[in-house]
Every structure is written in C-alpha cells, then in structure tokens.
Design goal:
Elements (H helix, E strand, L loop, with lengths): L3 E6 L5 H10 L12 E3 L5 E6 L4 H6 L5 E5 H7 L4 E5 L5 E8 L14 E4 L2 H10 L5 E4 L15 E6 L3 H5 L2 E10 L1 E5 L7 H17 L1 E9 L3 H7 L7 E4 L5 E9 L3 H10 L3 E7 L6
Parallel strand pairs: 1-3, 1-4, 7-8, 7-9
Antiparallel strand pairs: 2-3, 4-11, 5-11, 6-9, 6-10, 12-14, 12-15, 13-14
The structure holds adenosine-5'-triphosphate, 1-O-pyrophosphono-5-O-phosphono-alpha-D-ribofuranose (PRP) and magnesium ion.
Amino acid sequence: MKKLKIAIQKSGRLNEKSVQLLKNCGLSFENYKSSLITAVSNFPLEILFLRDDDIPEYVQDGIADLGIVGENVIAETEANVHYLQRLGFGKCSLKIAVPNHSDAKTLADLNGKAIATSYPTILKKYLDANGISADIRVISGSVEISPALELSQAIFDIVSTGGTLRSNGLKPFADVMSSEAVLISKNGIDGNPVVRELIQRIQSVLRAAETKYVVLNVERNNLDDIVSLLPGVKSPTIVPLAEENWVAVHTVISERDFWEKINKLKSVGAQGIVVMPVEKIIL
Ligand SMILES: Nc1ncnc2c1ncn2[C@@H]1O[C@H](COP(=O)(O)OP(=O)(O)OP(=O)(O)O)[C@@H](O)[C@H]1O
Ligand SMILES: O=P(O)(O)OC[C@H]1O[C@H](OP(=O)(O)OP(=O)(O)O)[C@H](O)[C@@H]1O
Ligand SMILES: [Mg+2]
C-alpha cells in the first residue's frame, strides 16, 4: 500500500502535542527532526516535519496528504484544504490590541492608523468587512513590541493567556478569530482507508482525554441514586464486594463536569472513590 504523508510542525508550539497525539494513536516512529521526514514502522504513513506556515499549502498541493496545523495559519494562507478533525490543543485567539493609554474606543478609531501583524490576510479581510482603512505593517515576529517602538498604533496577533500583551503595555481591543490545531487533508482523500483508520484512532484518543475512569464503593441501598448519576459508556459496571450489601461501581466521567459529579456521588453515599486516566475509548 502506498504510504501517505502527514505534515506536522518541526518545532514550536504544536510540535510536541502533534507528536504525542500520533504516538498515542499507536504509531511507532523515531522523532528524528533533523531528517525532516520519518517513516512510521507499524502504519502506512510518513511524517514530514515542516514550518507551520508551509503546512496548509503543502496539503493543498498534495505534497503532504494530511497535516496538523492551527486554523489561524490555514486562514492566513487561504489554502483550499479539507477539515477532518479539531484536535483540542493550540487554542488561542487572534486579537487587535492597542496600548493601555490609547483612547481608541470603536473600530472606526483605527481608520488611518498603522497596525503591525504577522497575519496581514486575516487582518485585511476583517478590516475590509468592517469598512476600516488602516496601514497594515507586516512583521514576522515580536509584534507586541511595535507600538513601543512607534512602528504602529495597534497590533494584531495571537493571544492566549494575555501575558505578552500585558507585559508590553497593551490591552485587547477587538477579537477577530479563535483558533486551535486541526487535522486537515487534501481534498478528496477522506474516504481513503488509511485516513479513516487514523481519524478513528485520533477520535478514540481525544474521547479518552476528556474522560476519567472512576471506581467507587457504595451500599446496595444507595445504588439506584448512584447509577442515576452515571451514564458510563453504556451503563456502569457493578461488582459485588466481599463485604455483604456493598458493591463497587466502575464507570467513566467526563472531564467537563468531573468535580460536580464527584460531589454529587459523595452526597448520595459513594466512598473510596478512585480516579484513573483513560488511554483510549473505542466505540
Ligand atoms: N500562546 C499560544 N497559545 C496557544 N497556541 C498558540 C500560541 N501561540 C501560537 N499558538 C498556535 O501554535 C501555532 C504555532 O505557533 P509557533 O509560535 O510555534 O509558530 P511559529 O513561530 O510560526 O512556528 P514555525 O517555526 O513552525 O513557523 C500558531 O500558529 C497557533 O496556532
Ligand atoms: O497571550 P500569551 O499567552 O502571552 O501568548 C501570546 C504569544 O504567544 C505567541 O508567541 P510565542 O510565545 O509562541 O513566541 P514567538 O513569538 O516566538 O512565536 C504569540 O505570538 C504571542 O506573542
Ligand atoms: Mg510559522
């Protein structure tokens, strides 16, 4: 079978989590970044290590069949690719920010102003859609420093915790887009059996990451209350304990409402609650 190629970031914010995701899918490979391409020994796939800026176009042009990249980079390159799966990491926003002392209040106050960014395409589209005419200054990094250097009166860049904005005396002014890492493919390849198998594995890893395996003990006369709180994958597993009238309940709980659920379980008699990570959930 012809090997497919997946492009991931060579180094930077998405590299480690992309590598980890593929490894969690059971793919075995050496992380030889210096070779820029590595073969997976137990799955028909090769991994290309690239600058993230190049990934959408490589996938669009079929040089790579699949890619893992931020939605922001896809939007900036305007590459024509197919979205297969959101991956839940690399979450950030793209915002316009202005100096803390700026008196700009509405978007119209940006008319005629200089805005520094590494994302000119996304910014231009946003300004055009809002009827704003500004001078877009393209710089490749350290964008947040440009107002202090009097290169611009505003910036447009990635914001996550907001720490970089704060430490450069800037405040958020307009939210333009949110982004996370996504799995993309070239058009027309999503029916390929290797792609389908990879998506299935990725989904089972993502499902597991949102889930905890929980074992708890409860007296039989409180069991109905406990079970009514627990969906499980199908329904919880009930195992009798050596002590009469007691059972152990095995189930999975979503990370999202984990503490709320645990507190409710305790309030209806759950004891000795043990929580474990889940590696994969295959439906
Ligand atoms: N602070 C952040 N928090 C969360 N995600 C981020 C953050 N900064 C960037 N990202 C996401 O990670 C991607 C890669 O960021 P990184 O800073 O490694 O890019 P880069 O310097 O352009 O890398 P490359 O050398 O591959 O061109 C971004 O395009 C964005 O999707
Ligand atoms: O809101 P924050 O949590 O501070 O994150 C935002 C910063 O993160 C990214 O830079 P990164 O740290 O990846 O460095 P880079 O400029 O070298 O890409 C981005 O370009 C911002 O500068
Ligand atoms: Mg880049």
